């Protein structure tokens, strides 16, 4: 399973995370916004679409910087999670799919309950920003 996700980074260095809603797999855990590419989409096109659907923001593919990936078993599937950094977007993110959004610094990011694939990504992100 391939998933693309974005670390949106605000001017003050905080990162946006969203909470997975009840009824979904991994409900209640915090994640980077994103999702699965559809057939025929590039990873960057998929992420632009997901950020529009999930947060209502407009992002240009050129403003997505490929940054890190994680490879983790997830139940009986195997997840490859591609993380992009994004610092430029239009609009104010709203929780259109998530139960909650939060802008967090790295100390908070490390304390949040996130899926296992996200742990190594946070460590990688800390070195990149
Ligand atoms: N967007 C996102 N997904 C993540 C992260 N970490 C992580 O393990 N995932 C997993 C959760 C989901 O299984 C999958 C993303 O799928 P999705 O959000 O598009 O769809 P979904 O919840 O319906 O997925 P699922 O029920 O098939 O697991 O990737 C993350 O940081 N961001």
UniProtKB/TrEMBL annotation:
It catalyses: 8-oxo-GTP + H2O = 8-oxo-GMP + diphosphate + H(+); 8-oxo-dGTP + H2O = 8-oxo-dGMP + diphosphate + H(+). It comes from the Bacteria. SUPFAM superfamilies: Nudix. It comes from Sphingomonas paeninsulae. Its EC number is 3.6.1.55. This is 8-oxo-dGTP diphosphatase. The keyword Hydrolase applies. Keywords: DNA damage, DNA repair, DNA replication, Hydrolase, Magnesium, Metal-binding, Mutator protein. The keyword RNA-binding does not apply. Its cofactor is Mg(2+). Pfam families: NUDIX_4. Belongs to the Nudix hydrolase family. Residues 1-127 form the Nudix hydrolase domain. CDD domains: NUDIX_MutT_NudA_like. One of its GO terms (biological process) is DNA repair. Gene3D superfamilies: Nucleoside Triphosphate Pyrophosphohydrolase (3.90.79.10). One of its GO terms (molecular function) is 8-oxo-GDP phosphatase activity.
């Amino acid at each position: 399973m391939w998933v693309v996700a974005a670390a949106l980074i605000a001017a003050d260095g905080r990162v946006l995370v969203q909470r997975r809603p009840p009824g979904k797999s991994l409900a209640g855990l915090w994640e980077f916004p994103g999702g699965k590419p559809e057939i025929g989409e590039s990873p960057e096109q998929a992420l632009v679409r997901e950020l529009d659907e999930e947060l209502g923001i407009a992002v240009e593919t050129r403003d997505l910087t490929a940054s890190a990936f994680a490879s983790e078993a997830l139940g009986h599937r195997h997840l490859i999670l591609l993380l992009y950094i994004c610092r430029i977007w239009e609009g104010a993110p709203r929780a259109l799919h998530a139960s909650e959004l939060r802008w967090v610094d790295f100390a908070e990011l490390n304390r949040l309950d996130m899926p296992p694939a996200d742990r190594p990504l946070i460590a990688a992100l800390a070195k990149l920003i």
